[in-house]
Amino acid sequence: MLTTIRAAACAALAALPLLAQPVMAQDKVLKFATPQDFTVVYTFVTAEYNQGYRDYITLINERGGLGGIKIDVLVSDHGNAIQRGMEAFERSTRDGAILVDPLSTPVSRALVTRALQDKVNLITTMSGRSDAADGTVFPYVLPMSPSYWSQVARMVDYIRQEEKDLKGKKLAYVYIDTPFGRESLPLWEALAKKDGFELQTYPYAPPGNEQSAVWTQVRRFRPDWVFIGGGGVGQPVSIKEAIRNGIRVDRIASWVWLSESDMDVVGRAEAKGVLKFAVTEQGADSKVIKDIIAEVVDKGKGAGPKDKVGTSYYNVGVMAAALAAEGARKALEKNPTGPFTGEWLNAGLTSISKFDLGGFLPPITITPEDHQGGGQGKVARWDGVKWVAVTGWGAANQDIIWEMIRKQAAEFKATGK
Amino acid sequence: MDLALFGELIINGALVGLMYALAALGIVLVYRTSGLANLAQGAIAMLGGYLGWITIAWLGLHPILGALVAMVVMFAIGLGIERTTLRPLIGQPVIMIIMVTIGLEILMRGLVPGLLGSGVKRLDLGISDAPLFLGDMLINRTYLVSAGIALIIILATLALFNSRIGIMLRAVSDDQTASWSVGIRVEWAIAFAWGLAAVTGTAAGILWGGSQGVDWTLSLLLIKALAIAILGGLDSIVGVVVAGLIVGVAEAIASGLFDPLVGGGTRDIVACVIILATLLVKPEGLFGREHIERV
Amino acid sequence: MFYRQAGIRYTSYPAERQLWPLGIERVLMGLILALALIAPALLSPLLLSSYLLPWVIWSIAALGLNLLMGGAGQIHLGYAAVMAIGAYSATHAARAGLPFELSLLVAGLASAVIGVIFGAAALRIRGLYLAIATLAMQYIVDFAIGHIPAISGGTQATVATPTPRILGIPVEGPVGGYYIALVVCIVVTLFMLNLRRTSFGRALAAIREKDYAAEILGISAFRYKLMAFWTSSFIGGVAGAILVFCYYRSVSPEQFHLETSVQLVAMVIVGGLGSVLGTFLGAALILLAPLALSALVASLASSGLPIGSDLRAHLPLVLYGALIVGFLIAEPLGLAKLYDNARKYLLVWPFRHARS
């Protein structure tokens, strides 16, 4: 009996917070929700991304907010589970959140219909569907960052410049076998046709902790360049296997999902030369990161360990927060009195114009039609210690990409797929 | 399909299979002694990998020394797991045991990365990444060394089962009541098996951590381990080695042959098909004793 | 005190076999039903759409699984795959223009047919072996769904579900979805409650206890095991369809992975094997406790409690695991047993002991 009473008490305790009333929303606070995946698939990025996000918002708030209005970031974990992502979406919008950033491709895909119905701004920086760049079909879904298509196109363009001509060259695309990895296959085919290179694609089973059989085949293909398209644990394994299979390190390229800690796993010196797409300035030398260190982190208000400040994914988090805050500032300019709803913020977000955060970002312009913001980025190279940009801001092949975006968006509109 | 590609797939697949087999060993050890399902072996390997990271990367011990320290700690943890969660459930239906080990798996998957950090951690075992060529075939050096260590550990376990302790463990697995009546401490034997499972799991976690980095995905070794344990027979240590080789080679060849055809990663499915085929054709596995009640 | 047995007597056999012999339990049932019916008016949209609606839907699924695990004693670690089959077949049927009601039926039938194939394994193996076999099937179904674009919906791998229409009238929003789910839930609950009074239910119980013995008694283990898988998979398929139509509003492979299967088994076990009431309680606890905990932790953290963000994010997972382990050790019979204890205590109150 005692044990059952104990169990009952546990059950009752667990149910308690359900009854607790939510804190009433105070006036003059904007709420941004970041229910993200801290525990399951996106563990490699979420902690740093979220830290950067919150630190930047703290910086804004420390400086007095946006004309006196502070921003509150609601953090929770959805574990990449759609169920919990939806619950977090509903709960945070009920609590007054007008912007939700789930940082998970499956969750954001599942939330698209809800966001469109409820008129809440769904931010899909570095996640979610690429065709959401079409603002006419997805008015409330805002990637505000180069889609994977744009990243691939930019990297291939860089390779083309390096090689002068890609005709007859061999490129291998080694990717994680999930919708996320498969999404860019049509673009690869389009690019292969346009630039005339020979393309082979190699899927590996998720999460990619063992890829030796795949790379055995890649080596047989003798590619001139290899593009690895994964995220998390699969990325360093890919690089290790590539090196082992005799592929030159400086012929390995990837999209944004390569960070300092991935390089640690490969071995910092061994990975020297790897290329990646960078959406922000790298490292902690930019003005905004220095400001954050001086005004937030050193005052003990940082959201995480100091040694993570300025890492690749931290900077992406800063970018997402800066764009959201800039959108809010624009919205205040347009309509200073509110009411502060998702619709109000959307008007601001879609009028962001040439915003570059002091050179930290490429100039980003979001319009009601174009939610991608230009698709620009730099190519960065790992020099054994840090990522170093080897090009300026730029985008490539946006015409092909927009053709694909419009095609898929129209399909979504017609069929709901 | 050239011969070198084929040979390379087979050799590397076999090496990987031996590394999987080490993870499967824990399942076999527990089942063999106590007849209990151990679906927490993936998380045990993960915990072992994290402990190895603590001793080797953090405390800076020599990899072998660090691994030994981690194994000793994990032996104690294995005993603790048995004492606190498995023993109270003696006599409950199988589903309860299955579920409690799944619960343990979830618990550890939350607790360990929660406390030690969820990012991928580098675990350097001092094995060089430089390619090793055998004719035209490239052998993965990390896998070669790891598979060698795995084989040594599995053979050592086999030797242990032929020693006095092993005879005791085998007696317990044959008939618990009879063992009791001749003075064998059955609880102790079962706890020892869990400790041993934790030790072999740690070895698997550290070796895999060395090749992929340490994070929670180490716990996904479970499905491969299950496939090997089922194919080899849940109570056969020799079976683990043979089944490990078969599963590893089958996976490598499948991803070499079928991936380009279906345009997808077929590796995980191979393990599942092997499980199903074994269970439907020869449920006791290749080397298992045929004592399964057929329905 | 309230659980009075005095004055209860039967004048006919059907009366003696009624579901709730005690007056108070009939009153309670009526009350719960009434509350469930007017819930949309009482609860805020958040509570309705994020807690009550998923609870009702997951309860349907867990009831279906409990029929198999508690009723027939078969282990199933691939139930989410069965639900996925229902969800996808209903979605594609409805998108092809079939009415919603028929799509539900299609979902149930498709799941039942494939579920029986799962069940075929149970004819040959049991216990741990069956658990692992169903686990393997879960992975195979996952793979098939993910790799056949015609099913998963192409590059984006998400298919939006059409708005459900009941007799041609569109049912929109969480309230409409809630009533659809509630009606299905009531039907399934009544079926489960009555199951043990049918020959089918008794045959399943006989097989659960010992299939050899059942066979000797003239109960065909072959037939009834397959029937158990058929029925349970039918319910699972319908539950999967309801889940995507009324709650998720779109269907993607990630919704039905192994974690979902484990979650369902956890609901059944924490609730109590074979208990209808327990299934509801188990679904509530497993579903809502991690949600509630992450809300609690978030509010604690914003009020300045110093816990690392890694640990904070992992706490719901820890709690979920701890709930499963803790319940199995402390009360293997689950939450249903807790209610049973209270009921037995109240039956003889104010005395402490009596013949139960």
TrEMBL record, chain A:
One Pfam family cited in the UniProt record for this chain? Peripla_BP_6
UniProt keyword annotations, A-Z:
Signal
Signal peptide, first to last residue:
1-25
- PANTHER family per the UniProt record, alphabetical: BLR6548 PROTEIN
- InterPro entries under this entry? Leu-bd (IPR028081), Peripla_BP_I (IPR028082)
Q: Which Gene3D superfamilies match?
A: 3.40.50.2300
Know the name of this protein?
A: ABC transporter permease
Q: Would the keyword NAD turn up in this protein's UniProt record? A: no
Question: What positions does the domain Leucine-binding protein occupy?
Answer: 36-383
So what family is this one in? Answer: Belongs to the leucine-binding protein family.
SUPFAM superfamilies per the record?
Periplasmic binding protein-like I
From TrEMBL, chain B:
Task: Locate the transmembrane regions by residue number.
Answer: 6-31, 38-58, 64-81, 93-112, 143-161, 188-208
Could you cite one Gene Ontology molecular function of this protein? transmembrane transporter activity
- Subcellular locations according to the entry: Cell membrane
Q: How does it sit in the membrane?
A: Multi-pass membrane protein
**Taxonomy, superkingdom:** Bacteria
Pfam families for this protein: BPD_transp_2
UniProt keyword list: Amino-acid transport, Cell membrane, Membrane, Transmembrane, Transmembrane helix, Transport
Q: Which InterPro entries match?
A: ABC_transp_permease, BCAA_transport_permease
Q: Which GO terms describe its biological process?
A: amino acid transport
A Gene Ontology cellular-component term:
plasma membrane
Q: Which family does it belong to?
A: Belongs to the binding-protein-dependent transport system permease family. LivHM subfamily.
Q: Which PANTHER family match?
A: ABC TRANSPORTER PERMEASE PROTEIN, BRANCHED-CHAIN AMINO ACID TRANSPORT SYSTEM PERMEASE PROTEIN LIVH
Protein name in UniProt:
Branched-chain amino acid ABC transporter permease
Originating organism: Chelatococcus reniformis
Automatic annotation (TrEMBL), chain C:
Tell me which CDD domains the record gives: TM_PBP1_LivM_like (cd06581)
Q: Which GO terms describe its cellular component?
A: plasma membrane
Membrane-topology annotation of the record = Multi-pass membrane protein
Which superkingdom? Bacteria
Native organism? Chelatococcus reniformis
Report whether RNA-binding shows up as a keyword of the record. Answer: no
What is the name attached to this protein's record? Branched-chain amino acid ABC transporter permease
Q: What is its main location?
A: membrane
Q: Where are the transmembrane segments?
A: 27-46, 52-70, 77-96, 102-121, 128-148, 177-195, 227-250, 262-280, 285-305, 317-336
Q: Which InterPro entries match?
A: ABC_transp_permease, LivM-like
Cell cycle listed as a keyword:
no
- Could you list this entry's UniProt keywords, alphabetically sorted: Cell membrane, Membrane, Transmembrane, Transmembrane helix
